[in-house]
Amino acid sequence: MARTRPSGARWVSVAQALIARELVEHLGVPTRRAAELLGLAPSAVSQYVRGRRRDRSMTEIGGRPDVTAIAHRAAAALSEVPRGSDPGTRTVLQAAAEISELFEGPGASAAGNAPSVDRAVLRQLRERVAAEQGAVTSCMHLAQKARDELTRAIFRQIASDSLRHAEIVASLAIYLEAGTSHSLASGIARSDIENLIRQEHEAEGEGGAGLRVGLGGVMKLLAQSMADDEAKHERLLEGLLAEGFPG
Fold it and tell me: From residue 233, how far is each of 78, 129, 167 by CA, in Å?
């Protein structure tokens, strides 16, 4: 008999459990603080971390790299919430919705009927997700140690990039598990990409190069990182035109 997946409010419990574990075990947030961020009792967070409130289905769901990436991103966002703010209910609900869509959305069951794939490749992808998440933890720690906003911005940018990399790798794993190794863009037209390229060029032209003039140290690094991002965006969009559409 096939095991039933959580539904409705149960997805929220799954998200709370996984985010609690990420906050405490991977981001080093104290249990009491994690409870405040999640709007839970400290005892509930402790039980989630120890696994006492996670049944078998929750454990299986949490073992997927794409689910772990969602939970880690939500935990990183919550860890930045100032003390005294409202619990991160919206962040938890968003994570719950994203996790449920992986299992209940269109094509979510494809992985269950997937053809055989190279398990070594999938293992490498999972290890990459874990490595990126480790980088996020280190960067968040260094951002907290930094004493000025510009230095913190550097580590936060690296953390953000690492989170995005983890999500990309997790998404690749989903497609590979479903037997797909080649995909095309959907829901957009070539004209959409061409318009976006023009907008990117306009944005870069409005003070982009001049922004770096006269800057030094950390300020120069941040300005250069913006220019590097713009160049990367152009490569991605040009590549999407070349590779992402039929023909």
Answer: 28, 23, 18
